[in-house]
Amino acid sequence: MDSTSNVGRRQAFAARDRFPPAEKVATAPVGVNAESKGPKTLVKKTTPGTPKDKPPGSPAAPHFNFYHDEPLFGLDIGYTSMKVMQLAPTRDRPKVVGYGVSNFYPMSLIQNGEIVNFKGLAKYLHELFEDGLIGSISTRRVACSIPTSHTFSRPMKLPPMEKDELAEAVHLEAEQYIPVPAEKLYLDYDILRSDEEGTDLLVVATPKNIIDSYMKFLELVGLEPVAMEPTMNATARLFGLADPSHAQPSVLVDFGSIAVDLAVFDKTIFVNSTVNGGSDTLTTLIAQQLGISVQQAFGIKSKYGISYSEKLGSIMNAAQPILDNLIRETRKIIRYYDERTSKEQKITQIITTGGGATLSGLSEFLSRQLNLPTRMLDPWHKIDFGELGPPTELAKSMYITVAGEAILNPKELFA
After folding, report:
1. Does residue 181 fall inside a structural domain?
2. What domain count does the chain have?
3. Tens of pLDDT, residues 19-43
4. How far is CA 385 from CA 107, 188, 364, 382, in A?
5. Is 76 part of any domain?
6. CA distance readout (Å), 141 to 2, 110, 243, 405
7. Predicted TM-score (pTM) of this structure
8. Cα distance between residue 177 and residue 322, in whole Å
9. Do residues 401 and 254 lie in contact, with contact meaning Cβ atoms separated by under 8 Å?
10. In the prediction, which pLDDT does 400 show?
11. What DSSP element (H or E) covers 264?
12. Which of 11, 242, 255, 376 allows an S-S link to 356, with CB 3.0 to 4.6 Å?
């Protein structure tokens, strides 16, 4: 596996001097492990103490002891809440050691994907660890998600060339389609296939200010980041582990609170996109449409959704802008996939996740509009909650991303 300018690499080296014992930071899992049949994680291939992979202008990497078998926990920092989960490997299926969700916090703490109020967000995480955990979290090592809506992910095909030429070629090619100056991005790539015909890669780029803010926050709360990746990649990992149909090309739809993330998954994240407006946005639109309070609108949305009812007309009038954009963008990424793959490869299904995926009638609506079978991702038969007990049926969907982080194998990071 080859990478360049790994996402957050500069922060990783700097952070190591500030919270020992520190760990290698891995980034943007985007490939597929042929043995595990799930997404693998792009990691820096540096041996401790060797500076050859350091970014330009960085000091040589100091020596550190890496504990490959030490546990980690997943952290999903959402727009309005944080989720945590730690799993322990067992012979049959991973067992939950602890999990929980924070109280809702103001969206002003995170702006355009960047954490701007560090102490304010830290307060909510502290409260979660103090009072919101079911079970316990036994480690400071964390795999953290970053918002897919603020990352750029695209497949890339390059002509045959030497490996040491790939990095520059990827950067030059990426500049053609990423609408952010290269000097403001951390860019990573994974080689999916390489032969005499050329090299297929998946490229992921993230604005530096977002990664920098996450690293600063994790340092502030005393955590040791070992991996960062887009939320959709964590979802794809869980899909690859727990869903028997993961080998089929699929559209993943993560219906969040203020945005809907989309991705085509075909052994890896092929392309992703984001639609503005999510579950909370829908609640606000229903309140405006019906002239009622947000609390009343939430009750109506939860009870009726977009299923057939006496409220359907009013709810659909409110929901139409979000749903129209969702259908339009889904068709766009399906067309993007179809134009770049063989005629034999066709998307066969839509898989929904996220808190908004519980909206009554959503799966049926997507199936009708896109002519593809649609269902919610249900991975929980592959995870053992034991004596802790699982979340409620309505709450399960919001733990998808953090569970995808939590199942990351520490050995995978340092392979």
Report:
1. yes
2. 2
3. 223 333 333 333 323 233 333 333 3
4. 31, 34, 30, 10
5. yes
6. 24, 23, 27, 12
7. 0.80
8. 26
9. yes
10. 94
11. strand 259-265
12. 255
